[in-house]
Amino acid sequence: xxxxxxxxxxxxxxxxxxxxxxxxxxxxxxxxxxxxxxxxxxxxxxxxxxxxxxxxxxxxxxxxxxxxxxxxxxxxxxxxxxxxxxxxxxxxxxxxxxxxxxxxxxxxxxxxxxxxxxxxxxxxxxxxxxxxxxxxxxxxxxxxxxxxxxxxxxxxxxxxxxxxxxxxxxxxxxxxxxxxxxxxxxxxxxxxxxxxxxxxxxxxxxxxxxxxxxxxxxxxxxxxxxxxxxxxxxxxxxxxxxxxxxxxxxxxxxxxxxxxxxxxxxxxxxxxxxxxxxxxxxxxxxxxxxxxxxxxxxxxxxxxxxxxxxxxxxxxxxxxxxxxxxxxxxxxxxxxxxxxxxxxxxxxxxxxxxxxxxxxxxxxxxxxxxxxxx
Length: 374
Ligand SMILES: NC(=O)c1ccc[n+]([C@@H]2O[C@H](COP(=O)([O-])OP(=O)(O)OC[C@H]3O[C@@H](n4cnc5c(N)ncnc54)[C@H](O)[C@@H]3O)[C@@H](O)[C@H]2O)c1
What we know:
By secondary structure, this protein is α/β, with parallel strands linked by helices. Helix content is 36%, strand content 16%. The protein contains 14 helices and 15 strands. The two termini are 22 Å apart.
């Protein structure tokens, strides 16, 4: 199979979808990897390294899209990539379709096969490709939030860990999955006073005993309102796979927060958990609304592209190999985690949660399974 890897086009995106080691693993099985020139440079991987791992270097974006059966990317296709979509071609990437009705419609209409990293799900419900990116974003959330809390950034001028004789900062983490758990761990490490909120009590249990002791709170609107009122830093890390993030901070709740406090909305890629959240970029990461500093970067792992590119390849490689070895149709029939990631196929939207979010008709699971012949 010919696997194409374009240079990412999203603002400030510095990751690339595969490492030279990943290329070697794929090409050694007899497949071809066509990578756009300089695609890896911002992650510290040169064309020469890719070439010596067996990749072919394409001189343009057109060449990658025109020659490849499978496109492997980091972020959703950019507007300049959409024009290359063709029937039967597959795109394996973070797609975030719940917040992209137009892209969803185009992928369906053009007959592109969409495979969303976010939705690759194992039997136990774990999301093996999203997870490492969420761990990275969670760890970064505290350092980005701490920076935003500094007075020169517009924050309250609070040091999260405090100092002898002075109360530490209060951090509230909403959602204790991969991202939230790691944000909470880092926050505890700084010496901040930490509260972790989730609807799933088993996600809160690790925080009930040292060394990760934090206050654990069951998630209800009233509890969140109480907790954020005197918080310095609030981290949003909730997820309902495929769906828009639930809005857990309403405008009136925002109004009750302290001036100069900070919201880091990690789940902004799914629309954000605060009504006041809107996507920002790494170059311009924050804005103030009602006196609260908002950090809403949709691609936080791009802040540490070397780590993130290696971690992403570690997570995607076995799936890329499966698709390359079995073909797209074979992989969908034989590999259930892969099938769960299917968003569009042969002109149909194949995920009803996304269908609901974007207002388009979609097949249910039974319809999807029949369509792929499983
Ligand atoms: N901005 C970025 O750069 C970036 C990077 C990676 C991940 N993310 C996003 O971070 C979010 C979290 O991802 P994850 O991998 O940690 O997900 P996860 O599934 O591991 O965890 C989500 C948690 O949210 C909890 N939850 C759901 N509804 C809730 C509610 N009403 N109140 C409280 N908790 C609730 C779930 O019980 C679960 O524990 C996702 O939207 C993901 O796309 C963003």
